[in-house]
Amino acid sequence: MLKPRLFDIVLIGAGPAGCACAYQLAESGLTVAIIEKNIFPRDKICGDALSADVVNQLYRMNTNLAEAFLKRNPKQVSKGVRFFAPNNKSLDIHFTNPKHKEAVGFVMKRLNFDAFFVEQLMNVSNVSVFENHKAIQINHQGESVVVKTDKATFQAKMIIGADGANSIVNRKLSNNKIDKKHHSGGVRQYFENVKWNDAHGLIELHFYKEIIPGYFWIFPLPENQANVGLGMLSSEISKQNINLKQKFTELIENHPNLKSRFKNAKPLETIKGFGLPLGSKKKQLSGDHFLLLGDAANLIDPFTGEGIGNAIRSGRIAAEHIKKAFKERRFDADFNKKYDTNIYQAMWNELRVSKSLQNLLKISMAF
Ligand SMILES: Cc1cc2nc3c(=O)[nH]c(=O)nc-3n(C[C@H](O)[C@H](O)[C@H](O)COP(=O)(O)OP(=O)(O)OC[C@H]3O[C@@H](n4cnc5c(N)ncnc54)[C@H](O)[C@@H]3O)c2cc1C
Description:
The protein is α/β, with parallel strands linked by helices and 367 residues long. It has helices at residues 16-24, 52-61, 63-71, 110-121, 168-173, 234-239, 244-254, 259-262, 308-328, 333-366; strands at 5-6, 9-12, 32-35, 49-50, 76-78, 80-84, 90-94, 105-107, 127-130, 135-141, 144-149, 153-156, 158-161, 183-192, 203-206, 214-221, 225-233, 266-267, 272-277, 286-287, 290-292. 33% of the residues lie in helices and 26% in strands. The strands form four sheets. Strands 6, 7, 14, 15, 16, 17, 18 and 19 form an eight-stranded mixed β-sheet that branches. It has a six-stranded mixed β-sheet with strand order 9-3-2-13-21-20. Strands 1-12-11-10 form a four-stranded mixed β-sheet. Helix 1 runs parallel beside helix 4, helix 2 packs across helix 3 (63-71) and helix 2 (52-61) runs parallel beside helix 9 (308-328). The protein is globular, with a radius of gyration of 21 Å. Residues 12-18, 35-38, 44-49, 134-135, 162-164, 168, 186, 188, 229, 231, 274, 276, 293-295, 300, 305-308, 311 line the site of flavin-adenine dinucleotide.
């Protein structure tokens, strides 16, 4: 058997959480391997909405990183959100970013955003990116963890699960189980030529009784394209036996608020679905020699479905924890519990408010 490749840290997943963590570990003197099953640029099923918080997180990491992102295209500036009630009445809320006025919100395909982030790691000397490596096995071995991919074996003191909603790190090392009350299903389809009621450039959230808690969205993209999708709480999907792809098509083809807007629209792909682990319930975020980040740690806002900002935030917090762990030579579950505390200190208040909004929406739609 080939000898394992030795690193201080093995990070699984090069999405926003993994990239942020690796980026924040630059110049730490620690060797980092990022294992990613895809090759960039790669698609990720998402609404592609990048809130001002995402840009602020990039600024918190490094001004050059944030400014490189602001210069990067294609992306669509989004100055706010338009909420639609079932009767098609709408309410506009305009975003402001007191810290960075030019950085409000954006819609950028994850194909482009994630590739941008990974590119930023290519010149970080202590980080090695292993694309096209799927982690298939993880085991504790003495005072380290061994990760097998379909191509090689890696060994490290710390393993970081930044591997998204179906995280293998979460499944193999934690006691967490999927709870459908704290999980949503989502579908997405890119379109061209959706009709806009006016040139508002806002992201649109449409609330309909039959998909509560959840919403239908239309997010504008450059070149007359749009990211269109539908997300709904998984426990309701099961309870009402809803086929989300079918419901999505039904709404587009038949709903009076949408029908005419999609009459001349052309789908650019088949409808694609993926899960959203919501941060409406606390869970185990760490243990002996491991931490969970981003979607692997259920950090998606339960009301808006946004997870990219918190994924990056968790990457930043994880990196600071990892630096301390190596300084104190502590990788045990007791020490790593501080990471859970830090994450919820930074995010729980906002996640709790969003959970209440999700409940409120359910109640208000019942009348
Ligand atoms: C339909 C939908 C719409 C959404 N809309 C929005 C939105 O508009 N705005 C927003 O902020 N958030 C949105 N989200 C949430 C957002 O997509 C996630 O919160 C975000 O991608 C989390 O980042 P992450 O880095 O934790 O995980 P991911 O972005 O999922 O990245 C995980 C990475 O790990 C890799 N990986 C997985 N398993 C393995 C393995 N075994 N071995 C190696 N690599 C592996 C994957 O290939 C991937 O690159 C949406 C989600 C869905 C499903």
